[in-house]
Write a structure and sequence with these properties.
This protein has one domain (40-231): minor pseudopilin epsh fold (3-Layer(bab) Sandwich), CATH 3.55.40.10. The longest helix has 52 residues, at 40-91. 30% of the residues lie in helices and 24% in strands. The chain has helices at residues 15-34, 40-91; strands at 95-99, 107-108, 110-115, 130-136, 148-154, 165-167, 173-175, 194-202, 205-215, 221-224. By secondary structure, it is α+β, with helices and mostly antiparallel strands. The strands form 2 sheets. A 5-stranded antiparallel beta sheet has the order 4-3-1-6-7, covered by helices on one side. It has a 5-stranded antiparallel beta sheet with strand order 2-5-8-9-10, covered by helices on one side.
């Protein structure tokens, strides 16, 4: 009788081999389940979560964007005021600043700085004067700036049509028509300070923060907020 060689005998499977085979089977089953795709219920839950997140994020994003653009417009007005002041003192000439030409509350901002031909404010207004800086924040402006509205001015004479802020060579800020200081906005306030209240608008609806630019009688300018300009209208004389 011919016996089998040791290599011909069938040996029972080792425990490690059995475990490996089972792991392959489990992995194959899991892969088969993973290929079934996303159910309609799971898709609807995902859409609901996305809508909730977007509902929270979008209003905040709109506020942040409005705040950024309002600040950009206010800083542009600060730049124009600083430019007019520094050049008036350096060149010994009058410079005028206009912020919209109508003086109507809510009109879109259009900044213009003009250089005069002498120290008289009248020389920095109209014919003979030279445009030193201009920046349009109205609709369809060529620079693509957003719409920035001048909500309110103080004191009230700034609402006169064609009124300009005049920067004199000695550093003073006065009315462009009379070369007199602007009226005190309220008892306890110094004469000569001017305020412009700005915000970004979409159509006629304010968007974002409201900021104020203050131009002092000494020509210094600052960004501020919170003043009630309705109570700072002065005598308007």
């Amino acid at each position: 009788m011919t016996g089998r060689r040791p290599s011909d005998r069938t040996e029972p499977a080792a425990p490690a081999t059995v475990a490996l085979s089972l792991s392959h089977a489990v992995a194959a089953a899991a892969g088969a389940r993973g290929q079934r795709g996303t159910s309609l219920i799971e898709l609807m839950i995902g859409l609901v979560v996305l809508m909730v997140v977007m509902g929270v994020a979008l209003p905040n994003a709109a506020t942040l964007i409005g705040r950024f653009f309002t600040r950009s417009g206010a800083e542009d007005l600060l730049y124009a005021a600083d430019l007019a002041r520094s050049r008036a003192r350096a060149q010994r000439l009058a410079y005028s600043l206009s912020v919209g030409g109508l003086g109507v509350d809510g009109e879109l901002m259009n900044i213009t700085v003009r250089r005069g031909t002498s120290s008289a404010c009248s020389s920095a207004i109209g014919g003979g004067s030279t445009v030193a800086y201009t920046s349009d924040w109205g609709k369809n402006n060529p620079r693509g700036n957003p719409d920035i509205a001048v909500l309110r001015r103080a004191p009230k004479e700034l609402g006169n049509s064609g009124m300009t802020v005049c920067f004199k060579p000695d550093g003073r800020v006065v009315r462009g028509d009379t070369e007199m200081p602007f009226s005190p906005p309220a008892p306890g306030f110094l004469a000569g300070d001017c305020y412009f209240e700005l915000t970004r608008v979409h159509g006629t609806t304010p968007v974002g923060d409201i900021l104020q630019v203050q131009i002092g009688y000494n020509g210094s300018s600052a960004l501020t907020h919170g003043h009630n300009l309705g109570a700072l209208q002065g005598s308007g004389g």
